[in-house]
């Protein structure tokens, strides 16, 4: 597979997409699928465009469905693309283990994305604004109090303010 500048392949796996055989690659920048022995990806999802994944449970096929924002999508919410990769291996346990590598790293991308979006200030309906009207300081104080051992059994908001 042709790599982007500064890109390295973490691992790859033989899969099929739309009943065509190919190779699925996971790199430090994207998820890419090349048809047959081609070097140019027929599908590529940059890490920042990845949105969700689903795996098959039970059944005969070992599958991974991913959803991603369409490349260059400017709509809010963005247009989504979905791809279903199938491991057609004779050894189902080995196929599940191979798929697991992708699932683990894609889950990491989801967590990383969730952390980056949670860093943005969002209003907390239960938090009271401080003197400056800032809700984040009230939320941080409530979180710190909830994590402190002496406050673990106190229900916040149960006692009226004095």
From TrEMBL:
Residues 136-148 have a biased composition (Low complexity). Residues 114-149 are annotated as: Disordered. InterPro entries: PH-like_dom_sf, TFIIH_BTF_p62_N. It comes from the Eukaryota. It holds the Pfam family PH_TFIIH. Residues 116-125 have a biased composition (Polar residues). Residues 17-104 form the TFIIH p62 subunit N-terminal domain. This is TFIIH p62 subunit N-terminal domain-containing protein.
